[in-house]
Design goal:
Largest sheet: 4 strands, parallel
Number of strands: 6
Oligomer: single chain
Strand content: 15-25%
Shape: globular
Helix content: 40-55%
Radius of gyration: 17 Å
Length: 187
């Protein structure tokens, strides 16, 4: 039996992430990411890497964004198109339960695209020059309950395809490591 796990792009390729400056936060997430991936590899899990819609639209030198910015028809359409081949692969694996077990999808909590239970919101947007409300804008950015836009689109696609019960969606979150590690139990 092949155990299949779909993962957010940056779980396997951290070079695609927005540059972060909170060293403690980076180290905590990196420690959990390495622990999870190492354990998954040890257990023979096969990975499908989800696309990173932020990277494919804005590249490696992008600014950080919030899900509020991405929650628009254009970004959602981009996510949906990038997910088309992923959904087809997923349907094929699920159709052959005698050979494959899809153990789930692992997102990155806090991400504006790949957050599962937590994402970042805020009144973020516009230019920086000549702003008089920059501090208020920065202060408006909060990490709170909700899904990132790619994960939200993916969940809706799973529902449309009747795969919601087949494929759990879990977020990697350093403050709650047991959530993602539970995907690897019973393998």
């Amino acid at each position: 039996m092949n155990n299949i796990l779909l993962v957010s792009h940056c779980i396997l390729n951290t070079a695609s992430k927005v540059v972060l400056y909170d060293k403690k936060e980076i180290e905590a997430e990196e420690d959990l990411r390495r622990k999870f991936v190492g354990e998954a590899l040890r257990k023979g899990v096969q990975f499908i890497q989800l696309p990173c819609p932020e990277f494919t639209l804005y590249g490696s030198r992008r600014w950080g964004h919030v899900s509020t910015q991405f929650d628009n028809p254009f970004f959602r359409d981009h996510c949906s198109k990038q997910l088309d081949p992923v959904i087809l692969q997923l349907k094929e694996y699920v159709a052959h339960k005698d050979r494959f077990h899809v153990i789930g999808i692992l997102g990155i909590d806090g991400s504006p695209s790949c957050g599962v239970d937590r994402t970042c919101f805020g009144q973020w947007g516009g230019s920086f020059g000549e702003r008089t409300d920059l501090k208020e804008t920065l202060d408006s950015v909060k990490c709170a309950a909700g899904s990132g836009v790619l994960i939200d689109v993916l969940k809706k696609r799973l529902e449309t395809e009747g795969l919601t019960r087949e494929v759990p969606v879990v977020g990697l979150f350093a403050a709650e490591p047991e959530k993602c590690m539970a995907l690897l139990e019973n393998l």
